[in-house]
Amino acid sequence: MLKAKPRLDRDARREAILDVAQEVFLEEGFAAASMSTIAARLGGSKGTLYNYFASKDELFKAYVERRCLWQQDEVFAVISGETPEEALLRIARSFLTHVLSEITLRNFAVIAAESERTPELGRILYETGPKQGAERLAAFLAGLDAAGALELDGDPLGASQHLLGLLQSPLMKARLLNAIPPITPTQVDSEAARGVRTFLRAFGRR
Amino acid sequence: MLKAKPRLDRDARREAILDVAQEVFLEEGFAAASMSTIAARLGGSKGTLYNYFASKDELFKAYVERRCLWQQDEVFAVISGETPEEALLRIARSFLTHVLSEITLRNFAVIAAESERTPELGRILYETGPKQGAERLAAFLAGLDAAGALELDGDPLGASQHLLGLLQSPLMKARLLNAIPPITPTQVDSEAARGVRTFLRAFGRR
DNA sequence: GTCTATAAAGCGATAGAC
DNA sequence: GTCTATCGCTTTATAGAC
Predict the structure, then answer these.
(1) pLDDT tens digits, A153-173
(2) Nearest to residue B111, comparing CAs of B60, B182, B173, B66?
(3) How far is A141 from A154, CA to CA, in rounded Å?
């Protein structure tokens, strides 16, 4: 018997640790979260934690990377036969639902706060999140432009960024500062419609 | 001699403490900042600190309130005889310069992170910052609408929120996450022009 | 590989001399 | 009012039993 418990599932254990770490980081932020809290909620001990991650920093990095992988394909799911306005409305609602969800907002705030100390974390989140989202939306808008439904004047990325700005404008900051209660689906619908309407006034074919 | 050193300048000392506290809070965030660090950089002692502010929380609140007072009248300075587009461009540049400055961004990130624990802080910042700004801009836009320069369809606040969203869209998140270098005046001009152009396409008189 | 126990350092806050 | 010294507590990180 060389190894009594060889390793039932080291990867699963690692995932479980990241699940708990995500909870605690989102609840308390990076600085306030303690390895003791994470270990206690895990049911394990701090020794175990340090076995999987060399330090609190390494644990935090691993958590950010995993979240970025997750949210990559949440917004742009499938695009079937719809009118341009219907498609824009559906994407707008899906985007707002995701971006104003409590977990996404909290994640953003925590990483923004920590990105001063560790810019790498912020870069990872920005490039796999907002940046990629704007580029994918730009590609979709370019298609509508080519089909004659929009007038983008040759700058689909600019129009994409402006649509995203219109959608987030009043609610994003308010929610990031916890100045208003969580967003309801009704509010999402209303803001999506409002944003798309202004977008079409600016970029729709006259 | 009832009071030997009656009080040379208690208020000035309080201001000096808040100056140092602002530095440390912006550099390290709320949780990581320590009263010892603040006292040391002040040149005084922790005892002095606790003489002026009952707790770390009270010190933080006082700092937030002071910052909110400061930035109230920075953006909407004076509005003289300009064309509507010139006025919008000037306000847009002034707004972007303020909102994308390193100190404003860092302040926003720190308070957003802390507002989960203490929503009152976030509420104070939101209501005296973005909310008031949108309302003042709405009042200005309503004037342009009444003068026949814009077509706001009876919702000046909605148009104001959308203009602010257009201006901040691509750069705000990137800077909050420290994913791009500090904004240059050239970038501010370019984004302001881009945002105002889209805004006028949507709300300008046809 | 996982646990208990503990070391070493730092925290917010207080007490008391001056 | 301001300082020095220190209390009580919590933190990260490690050592050693199993």
Answers:
(1) 999 999 999 999 999 998 999
(2) B60
(3) 11
Contact A106, A26 (CB under 8 A): yes
pLDDT tens string A102-153: 988 998 998 898 888 888 888 888 988 899 889 989 999 999 999 999 999 9
Residues of B in Cβ contact (< 8 Å) with A113: 29, 109-110, 112-113
Give chain B's mean pLDDT. Answer: 89
Number of neighbours of residue B160 by Cβ within 10 angstroms:
24
Tell me how close the Cα of A177 comes to any Cα of chain B, in angstroms.
4
Tell me the C-alpha distance between B111 and B106, whole Å.
Answer: 9
| Shortest Cα distance, chain B CAs vs residue A3, angstroms | 43
What's the gap between Cα B83 and its chain centre? 27
Instruction: Identify residue A64 by its one-letter amino acid code.
Output: V
Q: Which amino acid is at B88?
A: L
Q: What are the chain B neighbours of A202 within 8 Å (beta carbons)?
A: 198-199, 201-202
Q: In this structure, what token pair is assigned to residue A193? A: 């419609």
CA separation for the pair A62, A182 (Å, rounded): 28
Q: How far apart are CA B59 and CA B95, in angstroms?
A: 28
**Would you state the structure tokens that stand for residue A157, as one six-digit string?**
């990325």
Residue B177 · residue A115 · CB < 8 Å: yes
- The SS3 assignment for A20 reads helix
Beta bridge mates, A204: A150
Q: What pLDDT was estimated at residue A206?
A: 74
What pLDDT does B120 receive? 85
Give, in order, the Cα–Cα distances in Å from B194 to each of A28, A157, B49, B198, B199.
Answer: 39, 12, 47, 6, 9
Of the candidates B123, B100, B119, the residue with the CA atom closest to the CA atom of residue B176: B100
Q: Is A11 helix (H, G, I), strand (E, B) or coil?
A: helix
- Summarize pLDDT for A38-67 with one digit per residue, the tens: 999 888 889 889 988 888 888 888 888 888
